[in-house]
């Protein structure tokens, strides 16, 4: 067994340098993994300097680093881009000196680490940060453009109310309903704009809020005439409020669309519950009194493909929850299905009462 054969047991490129009679550092070993990884047989390195074994500027850079370590006796690291088989790779070389009994550098051990994967990840993260920033800018512009027409709706409703003669036929209530819808829609746009700002890197969107206030806002938006019934936990929670609003709104609207024509609006009711587990996960359960979502819709939440007749909103909901590090569960029950959403967060305070919102 040769002096350096044991280096072949190491699953990364390793080489050894020793000075010749003139003090010039030369390769005395290059392990098998290094030869395979760098695409050159062992004889290309043995007995050669880095300038002789590696062509071009890379060889001169490596040689200068080798000489510097032999002279200084200090470990060092350097990086360079190495092209092999038409592939450019970012390599980091670490050089560690070994001393003899007189304190002189007897040899230098070198290891090679491929940083190409880490660099790719950094580039992807940078690209994603840029995309997120561009999306946030787009949302900001879209909300600005949408806000003006909705302000006009509220303005028209106010003009209709001014001097309107109430004949007792319910039209004044409809004008009030129109104003409510406009106000709530503008409030939702403001929340969406805030969400776009929170989505930029380095900004946390988590906040503390009353769970029943969030549910009540959603119901006022999707059911302004207050024809549906709802019960909800009275709890103070902390989490991403905008994400929870989107998730619950999609669930409520999907349930409304699913049961439209099958159940009278004034007999449809929703139930919202919340709790948290020890690993800082906020659980939100949603159920209705009409058997829950359709089978095809439940399949979408479970990870299935979107089929004709299924809600596109549920696909977006699934992606949104997963992107926020959460998950979805469909709990089958005797009366139908309960949708459980898990997101980062927790319940800060929970009252025993389960209140009726309407």
Give a structural overview.
The structure is a single chain. The chain has nine helices and eleven strands. The chain is of the alpha+beta class. It folds into three domains: 6-114, 2-Layer Sandwich (Beta-Lactamase), CATH 3.30.450; 115-203, Helix Hairpins; 204-358, Heat Shock Protein 90 (2-Layer Sandwich). Strands 6, 7, 8, 9, 10 and 11 form a six-stranded mixed sheet that branches. Strand 3 and strand 4 form a beta hairpin.
Characteristics:
alpha+beta, 42% helix, Helix Hairpins, five-stranded antiparallel beta sheet, elongated, Heat Shock Protein 90, six-stranded mixed beta sheet, 9 helices
CATH class of the largest domain: Alpha Beta
Please tell me what the overall shape is.
elongated
Overall number of structural domains: 3
CATH fold-level label of the largest domain: Heat Shock Protein 90
CATH architecture designation of the largest domain: 2-Layer Sandwich
Proportion in helices = 40-55%
CATH evolutionary superfamily of the largest domain: Histidine kinase-like ATPase, C-terminal domain
Number of helices: 9
Largest sheet: 6 strands, mixed
Contiguous runs where pLDDT drops below 50 for at least 5 residues = none
Structural class: alpha+beta
What is the helix/strand order?
A: EEHHHEEEHHEHEHEEHHEE
- The value of Rg in angstroms is 33 Å
Question: Layout of SSEs?
Answer:
Layout: E1 14-19, E2 25-30, H1 32-38, H2 50-53, H3 57-72, E3 76-84, E4 87-99, E5 105-114, H4 116-161, H5 171-198, E6 206-210, H6 211-222, E7 229-240, H7 241-259, E8 269-277, E9 281-288, H8 295-301, H9 312-323, E10 327-333, E11 336-356
Parallel strand pairs: 7-8
Antiparallel strand pairs: 1-2, 1-5, 3-4, 4-5, 6-7, 7-11, 8-9, 9-11, 10-11
